[in-house]
Amino acid sequence: MSAARLPPPRAPDLAALIRAESARLAAACTACGACVGACPMVPTLPAVAAAAPETVAAGMRAVLRGEAQAAPAGSVAWIGACTRSGLCTAACPERLDAAYMMRLAGMRLRGALGAGEEGGPPRLPAREDPGWSARVKAFARLTLTEEEQARWL
Amino acid sequence: MAVTPPPPADPAPERVVFWFGCNIARHGEIVRLATRMLEAVGIEPAPAGGPSYCCGSPKEANARIAGGMARRTMEAFNAMGRDTVVTWCPSCHMNMDDFMAPATEAAFATAHISEVLHARRDRLAPLLRHRVAARRALPHLHHGFNGRVPVNALVPDLLRLIPGLEVPDHPCRAPGHMCSALAGVPGALAAAQRALLAAAEETGADALVTIFHSCHRETVSLERGRPGLRVVNWIHLLAESMGLAYRDDYKAWRNAPDPREAVGPDRLAAAGETAFERLVEPELRRPPPV
Ligand code: SF4
């Protein structure tokens, strides 16, 4: 089977991973803005489309540096509109996984590391669906047999 | 005298976990058919999904909670003792790579189901004996995830094994990794669906083939008012060609004039009246994006 082995862990927990990966990628990012230029969501965000790509990218880098409160509103809006197209990663001249950087920045702006560490409240609302677990289970009761539910869930 | 060696014995089926995710619970028949398909190509899958096997992303606004959920899932997979976790959901697959395995040791490898079936297409092809109720099937593709797993090539390749089915190439790619990502950006899902319909018209397709569950959920309503157009998932089409029976209940409920009546009293009772009314019915009655 064409299965890929997973590398060993590089952090003791998710919070430590977010911190370490944010710092590593922010240090390598030049804020050139190529990722912003390649993003298919930018045309849906007039304020972001009108801003300099370098400024928008610098705001994303600031979030990864732990300076979320200093990031311009346009950068926050851009990160909030990320749909994970991955075209930013293909465009990055530094060969950084820009889509992963956007994911990390989005988690941080939604408060993943806590207000204390980010120097203020979340700048993006959490995308949590409070009914998610109950909804999944309700649909499972509609589409799976009792035996399938017992064995698979 | 030369001795002809005996033919190699059929290898023991490879034992895997089939991690189908959570939101695909709306499409239980896809889980069931995909499981049967893996079995048909010589794999022994243990399906696992739902909130008990969560990747943590629904709680990504709190790293402590999300990390705890992800760790619990990793430990459950490790305890299952299977060499490979076969994924279905692109979001689960990327979360495993990006956040789960980097924080908890994984005693398994991963592969997406499209990679597994494609790698075993020599075993799948002879099973695809029946023609399907579509002439020209346009795959609904996204930009995202394809950089991790080349689904945009693998799935059309597999569909081309179906006898008599044309699978046109078209450059249409929706933003995001699947349609649920677009639902949160005003106008994005409707724009993607309009582009998809235009691509169907340009290619003369009579079927739109979704790859992921959230795309299927968001796209089935395109059948309304378009009697010449069918929306199916790639697993549905392969199953149809294998002669496996199924019903796409979600599509039937979503497109019914009265979803409650379409679900029927027995299943409604199984889901629970309150849960149905609060969690299921609003989604089934939501106006379609286009
Ligand atoms: S393209 Fe790469 S280097 Fe340039 S701003 Fe984006 S992530 Fe940073």
UniProtKB/TrEMBL annotation, chain A:
Keyword set includes Transmembrane helix: no
GO MF annotation, one: metal ion binding
UniProt keyword annotations, A-Z: Iron, Iron-sulfur, Metal-binding
Residue span, 4Fe-4S ferredoxin-type domain: 20-50
Pfam families in alphabetical order: Fer4_8
Keyword Phosphoprotein in annotation: no
InterPro entries with a match to the protein in the record: 4Fe4S_Fe-S-bd, 4Fe4S_Fe_S_CS, Helical_ferredxn
Domain of life: Bacteria
Protein name: 4Fe-4S ferredoxin-type domain-containing protein
Organism: Caldovatus sediminis
Classification lineage: Bacteria, Pseudomonadati, Pseudomonadota, Alphaproteobacteria, Acetobacterales
Automatic annotation (TrEMBL), chain B:
Every Cysteine-rich domain range: 16-97
Molecular functions (GO terms): oxidoreductase activity
Domain of life: Bacteria
The protein, known as: Cysteine-rich domain-containing protein
Annotated organism of origin: Caldovatus sediminis
